[in-house]
Amino acid sequence: MASPSKDGRPGIGWALPAVVFFALFAVVPLVLVAVLSFTTWSGLGSPEFAGFDNWVTLFHDPVMIKSLWLSVLLTALGVVVQTPLSILLGVWAAGPQRNRAVLSAVFFVPLLLSATAVSVLWRALLEPNFGIPSQATWLFGDGNLLGDRTGAIAVLVLVSTWQFTPLHALIYQGAARAIPAVLYQAAEIDGAGRVRQFFHITLPQLRNAIITSVILMVVGGLTTFDTVLILTQGGPGTDTTITAYYMYQKAFKGFEFGAGAAIALLLVVVATAVSLVVVRVSGYDKMAGTKEGM
Amino acid sequence: MKTRARFHRAVAGGAALVLGLGLAACGGGGSSSGDSDEFHVLVYGDAGNRVEKRLVATFNKTSEVKAVLDTVPGADYQQKLQTVINTPQAPDVFFNWGGGSIQPFVEADLLLPLDDMMKKEPGLKSNFLPSVFETAQVDGKSYGIPMRGTQPVLLFNNKKVLADAGVEAPRTWDELLAAVKTLKGKDVTPIALGGGDKWTTMMWFEYLYDRVAGPELFKKALAGEKDVWDGADSRKALDMLRELIDAGAFGSNYDSVKFTDGSSPALLASGKAAFELMGSWAYSTQREADPDFARNDLGYSNFPAVEGGKGDAANLVGNTNNFYSVRKSTEHADAIAEFLKLMYSDEFVEEQLAIGNLPTTTNTDKFLDAADNPEYLKYQYDLVDKAPAFQLSWDQAYPPKNMTPIYVAVQQFFNGQLDPDGFIKAMQALTTV
Amino acid sequence: MTKRRPNYLAGVGVTLWLFVVALPLYVMLGAGVQSRADYGASGPLGFPDHFTLSNYVDSFSNGFGRYFVNTLIVTASVVAIVVLLVPPLAFAIVRNRGRSTSGVFRLFLLGLAIPAQAVIVPMFYVISEAGLYDNLIGVILPTAAFCMPVCVLILTGTMRDITDDLFEAMAIDGADARRVFFKLVVPLSKSGLSTVVVFAALQAWNGFLFPLVLTQSEETKVITLGLYNFQTQYGVDIPGLLAAVVLSTVPVLLVYLFARRALVQGLMGVGGK
Fold first, then answer.
1. From which residue to which does the signal peptide run (chain B) (predicted)?
2. In whole angstroms, what is the distance from residue B339 CA to residue B348 CA?
């Protein structure tokens, strides 16, 4: 490993094994994807160079453009729904209530289940003739949730909220615990109520946690596809064909691996750009520097 | 705190230990290629594998060259096949649906034409019903030997619901429309449809196009004559379908219902719906989910005739068969021929019938009486035997890349997002090679 | 702290959420102990009248034991790789002063945005060129690589919490990097480390895409593929599937129960301060 340095700081050699390993099994395939995106290939025979054909087709493909909007919509809805919910849950879980530990443990379970399990479960629950909708027709009408554009999108948001809120709530729980109690004590002396305390102390103190959580949600939202694969298969029609699923469809259902690769690369670029922007704007990557202070 | 520290040590120690074990254990796995005394058989992974396992065992008892059975679970079979077929890991023999599912492989020159093998071993041809080979022929050459069985699509019904409403299984389209009206009046969803699966919706198109235009329209379309989609017959079929949908035949939430999770069969079994158009496997689905219903109240009939239509009312659509195809580069063609001869053995037929499949071999007939549902099997066998035409499902007849576009089009036509013009345009956009 | 009146609003909210979380879990447990016929008759919300364990028994007779062992091998190996590689990396990212380490950090942030399904086709070729197709090692390596980014994020978060004076104290004692790492960083990153272990284990245990594409024989099948087997061409056996899901979740639940506190604290580190 690294040569021993006087100040006890590690050399770059400490990072090397992990970087090499990661490069081999994640970066190299990604580079190959980039190469593939300039070819046409059905999986049989050899890829043929096609220049920018895939890219040009992509940006003239109405389904592709629709899928981008859907991805953005689903991601945004995910952030909007999950953030307040997980902040509230996280802040609550950080409090001193007695039943907190037990309930938090139950709340965490959805995160442990595989995507197949989650989707099968929800599909069964939302079955229009035998599931919840049949018991509550005043709310669901004919229960045509997954067969309807709005309904299907709502279900996708609901299911990902159900599965991933625990993760984000945990992040907030940790951050909320770290807020110095003196801040609240001071506020209480000033006569600030619970609501004011929440907005004037808790929320501002959660800034970093919010950034992390939102990055994870955005990247996760842009790249999810298991739930779409099992719950809606992109339907009804193409109404839930989000970009990540469209890529899968092109590559593995249509065997247009070149076109699939182009979409994959686009997704990676967009997701990376978004997270880098958030990181840069928030100064998240500089945190080490500010802390070390020298 | 103490327990925590212990936990960490345990995790670290355990991880290191198992990594060592794991690597040692994996080392022996080895890859499938390179062994010269065996060939690999790749099969769609489901309940039917029981029979395939038995047959491989039977074969291996006497053969020097051993067969190795590999299965790929569920819906990803086709994509897995496409990924491996051109690599050293490719199977020597593999399961497929004929039609479009093997066409790209034939074009890439990866498959062995089986005509010579059939000449050497005439039994590979003479022991099957003649009509079943057609689906696995490309450019006049045979690429598949039937395995498993045939699965025509039938119009199932709930006899009790029909009796209560005073309706009979419809023999004509008009009778069907009348039945829909009566059933709606009784507060029953006339037809159960698991539209969430999409191929379920597609079956209605397959039959209606056949009855209205005859099997030729689709054959021409598949051969690249895209104009036929815009013809009068095509438009008539679409109009009739529209009429059925608008009459409320399928209710309003069919796209949220699936066949594959047991919902639409439950609709039929529970009497909430009166009919369901489904492949012959629906019988065994019902038998597993609701044995009493399957025994007493599950009725079935062929798809109704359309007055003035060009298609014979005895025509069928569905899965004509499953096939074994052989890879060209295999080193064991002779052993494989021996293996394929088992696909018409008595053992094969009995085992297939036992799990509810209907083989299309000439000796199937004599085992039907011994099966536990002889009436149903005989009905089917007769239908297949006498059908003037048996159309392979559209999604399997076209090359695989068209599957999604077809599904999207049929679903959007049903829910009103596409009008006839839009549907016709979508079908014309399919690639026929 | 002063005594506060109970927050009824929070109570109502939490109860509501409990309901949302628990209902699907109830369906999972309830369906798994029903026969297919009963489930079909009463639907997902029905109470299991005729209790049966046959779904669980069937799971084992369908080769679940073997899948279980395979999954265990994959999970343990992935965890081991991550535990060996990520802590030194995170140490370097947090404490190395060179510019290149921030580049390394960005590289792994980029890794967060690579969906596994995006690279699956080239991955197939990399693995089969390496002669690892249909071999558990071929599943272990990419699975480990793809859970590294989040692990790096978690662990750097934890290590940044180690205060500077501790490092300085060790530097004054003349400790080299290795000593600092084993005597200071590792002991103080325990919570982060166990989060990483649980996270990696979870990823490996529930991993689906890599095993699906990179293995094919019965000998290398993992649990998720076994679960997928319940989904046949013409239908899903929901009670059977959910029973198998429950079975497959038991080990994860056990790990979670034992490591919950550490896990919770580690994940909190991700939030930063």
1. 1-24
2. 12
Of the partner residues A120, A177, A267, the one whose CB lies closest to the CB of residue C118: A267
Query: Going by DSSP bridges, is the β-strand pair B322-326/B66-73 parallel, antiparallel, or unpaired?
Result: unpaired
Do the domain assignments include residue B10?
Answer: no
pLDDT of B1 above 80: no
Q: Judge contact between B83 and C125, C-beta under 8 A.
A: no
Beta bridge partners of B72: B44
Count CB neighbours of B134 within 10 A: 15
Of the residues B254, B256, B290, the best mutation for testing chain A's interface (the one with the most A CB atoms within 10 Å of its CB) is B256
Same domain, B278 and B332: no
pLDDT for residue B74: 66
In a domain, B22, yes or no: no
Q: Does B161 have pLDDT greater than 90?
A: yes
Helix (H) or strand (E) holding B421: helix B420-428
Report chain B residues whose CB lies below 8 A from the CB of A153: none
**Long-range contacts formed by C245-248: CB under 8 A, 24+ apart:** C245/A113, C245/A114, C245/A116, C245/A117, C245/A120, C245/C28, C245/C32, C246/C28, C246/C29, C246/C32, C246/C56, C247/C56, C247/C59, C247/C64, C248/A114, C248/A117, C248/C71, C248/C205, C248/C223, C248/C224
Q: Which residues of A touch C245 (CB under 8 A)?
A: 113-114, 116-117, 120
What pLDDT band is residue B2 in, cutting at 50, 70 and 90? very low
Q: Is B241 on the interface with A (CB under 8 A)?
A: no
Taking only the tens place, the pLDDT of each residue in C111-136 is: 877 878 778 878 887 888 888 988 99
B79 and B58 together in one domain: yes
Pairing of the two strands B151-158 and B273-279:
antiparallel
Class of domain C64-268 (CATH, top level)? mainly alpha
B137 and B161 both lie in a single domain: no
User: At which residue do the structure tokens 């989707």 appear?
Assistant: A119
Residue B259: give its domain's CATH number: 3.40.190.10
Cis peptide leading into residue A236 (ω within 30°): yes
Same domain, yes or no: B118 and B142: yes
Q: How many domains are there within chain B? A: 2
What is the pTM for the complete model shown? 0.86
Which part of chain C is CATH 1.10.3720.10?
A: 64-268
CB atoms within 10 A of CB B248: 15
Beta bridge partners of B154: B278
